[in-house]
Amino acid sequence: IVIPAFNEAGRIGGSLRVMLEYLGRGSPESEVIVVNDGSTDATSEIVREGFSTGGPITTRLIEHYPNRGKGAAVRAGLLAATQPIGLFSDADLSTPIDDAPKLIEPITAGEVDIAFGSRALDRRLIGHRQPWRREQGGRVFNLIVRVATGLPFWDTQCGFKAFRLDICRPILEQAKTEGFGFDVELLYLAWRTKIRMREIPVRWNHYEGSKVDFFHDSLCMLGEVIALRSRG
């Protein structure tokens, strides 16, 4: 499991505790990689403290300085992984970690090579919703993504995706987007190379403290999608 973290001192400790306890019970051979993406708070210290009680789970902290972006952090973590399947999760565990089998099992069964969480396929699974403006903006963004790229998916931005790494390493190495639009690029590259993918409904809750600036980052993501399409 890879967790990108930027100024997450307020919640990374609790998230790691939940994650390590869950993996220790059911998957002690797992590894957890946190990529600290240029945080200016105590994120690194809290991660090290959390890892010190990790039990049987292999843990690793990767430091990026200065901040390079969520896309760069996720790719660095996945490329550093030693297990055959890599899953990245947002630091706030907006999708509960015990939904991980929904993504992992289709990959281990040989059905797909990428499985990714979706808030759009079954909105009954959403608990605490985003503010209305942000939620509608996300829907518009995903519609633009579908039109611009041809991707047939309804939620490219949910921070809960799993990859069979021997198949997906080439697209991780090829990807260039370092910001929040990296999800679209990875799915687009996978779709173009006919990697098997599945969008899967997962539980999701909005938590305050998002690092996404709604207007600025939305414009940046649109720019990244346009650049991606022009490269394609």
Brief overview, please?
The protein has helices at residues 12-26, 43-51, 70-80, 100-108, 132-149, 165-174, 182-192, 214-231; strands at residues 2-5, 31-37, 58-64, 85-89, 114-118, 160-164, 197-201. It has 232 residues and is of the alpha/beta class.
Q: What fraction, in percent, of the residue positions are helical?
A: 40-55%
Distance between the termini: 30 Å
Shape annotation: globular
Strand runs, count: 7
**Order of strands across the main sheet:** 4-6-5-7
From the alpha-carbon coordinates, what is the Rg to the nearest angstrom? 17 Å
Main sheet makeup: 4 strands, mixed
Strand content: 15-25%
Descriptive report:
- The chain is of the alpha/beta class and 232 residues long.
- Helix content is 44%, strand content 16%.
- The protein is built from eight helices and seven strands; from the N terminus they run βαβαβαβαβαβααβα.
- The longest helix is centred in the middle third of the chain and has 18 residues, at 132-149.
- It starts with a strand and ends with a helix.
- The mean pLDDT is 89.
Feature tags:
232 residues, alpha/beta, four-stranded mixed sheet, three-stranded parallel sheet, 8 helices
Fold topology:
Elements: E1 2-5, H1 12-26, E2 31-37, H2 43-51, E3 58-64, H3 70-80, E4 85-89, H4 100-108, E5 114-118, H5 132-149, E6 160-164, H6 165-174, H7 182-192, E7 197-201, H8 214-231
Helix pairs in contact: 1-2, 5-8
